[in-house]
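ARCHIVE CARD
SHELF: 3
SLOT: left
DATA:
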Amino acid sequence: MARTRMIKADFPSVALRVLPIELSEANDAVSLWHRHHQPCVGHRFSLGAIDSSGVLRGVCIVGRPVARLAGAPRDVCEVTRLATDGTFNACSILYGAAAKAAKAMGFLRIQTYTLPTEGGASLRAAGWVLEGEAGGGQWKHSDGKPRRTDQPTDKKYRWAKILNPERPNLQLVAFDRSQVSLFDALENE
């Protein structure tokens, strides 16, 4: 299948702004624009790219890793859907914004998967790195149900971006209830 190379001159220049959106809003856009996936059931956060008129041009849904062995949900988040109306640079802007938000939230890494027919130019432009082939094939859920077949089951490529390599480990420290809190001291005045 021949790919058509598109250049910036093929698209009108549109200034985009990224803002948080509700999952229901993102899923409405996924229903309209995504070529091979249905809306998501859940998310950690969703982002929208809007133009200067407030028209939604793209959405990004970020959730927990779908694959069980893809990383601990506390450490890794995953772009589970990204869809646009074709606006130039919308994908790159959304991938970059998703990584920036995930970094601010303290995640170690962010990842996503693409089909072999998708080149990954937007991911490279946003500073993501191709880690190689991953997934694909048929498998069963832990409850024995087969994998959905209404979405691609082919091999995919995993892309990732390291966000907070120096993040300290989480430690839970026991609270000594015998210590007087600031609020207790104020009440006793």
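SLOT: right
DATA:
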Amino acid sequence: MNPASDATSLKVGALGASFTDSRRRAERLLSQAAASSERLAQLRDSVATSLRSAKSQLATMLDRYDRAIAEVSMPRPQGSQFIASRRRTDVCDRTTWYFHVRYARRHDQAALESLVSHYQDEVDRQARRIGTRSSNDDLIQVAREALVVALHRFDPLRRKPFTPFARLTVDGTLRRYLRDQGYAIRPSRRIYELTPRVRHTAEWLAQELGRAPTANEIADVLAVDTDQVLEVIASAQVRSPLSLDRPLGEDGQTLADVAGQGDANLSRTVDRQALRQLMHGLPDDDRSLLNEYFIAGHTQQEIADARGVSQMHVSRSLARILRRLRARASAT
């Protein structure tokens, strides 16, 4: 036997055994990795399930906590006199008060939407009471924005009803809006503060007298000057100016059709400018003759008598001047 051949065979056999052993170890590692990956996926699913369960339990716990706080802090009517008063409507139900607590503690958007939906009709009515038909849309929008501000600022743990708080907040916001934005021409502070007093007094006197009260009657009740009442009435007319597109009747005519009238001299502006250029350079006597005849409206005989010439001379002079002006106009 060849010793070199035997050594090579031994080396090849050792390498084959080593390769087989490495492959088996690699297969075992792959199997272990697959098992580890499967266990990791199971662990991940288990953790996700645990997190969902924990979140659900936490939400349930917080909800119960909020309901407990709402039950404890909810204001309740005290005494038969309070129950019999009109303010009993200021005490809301348990569900609404729970939403107050939920929004105040966690600023929950769903709770805010429920509260806005619950109080929206009331603030809309409040806006309509102090507005006019033309300004209702703007005032309603301002009132709803004030409602959201009131909900954000309200603290239910003080155990006070929300409705009076919201009513004052909305009323103050509406009055500031009317003071700053509601007038086309802003009145003085004195007139602005007197306006609601005049309006309420006028409504009361109309019921008492069965007719519209006069400015003197309103002034007597308020103990103010009649001129001040008249100023208030005048300022109310500029709060919402009339639209030029406002229809005046069934014929489709609008305020723009009858407000003012066209200037008859407007169409003559171009002609006058052209005539002024044509008359530039005319002798003063010719300009004076044109002015007496066409502007002052004197007859040719009256001009002739004033100038001490014949009527024929005036007629020929006018014809000469007009021919000159026509020639200039044709040349330009």
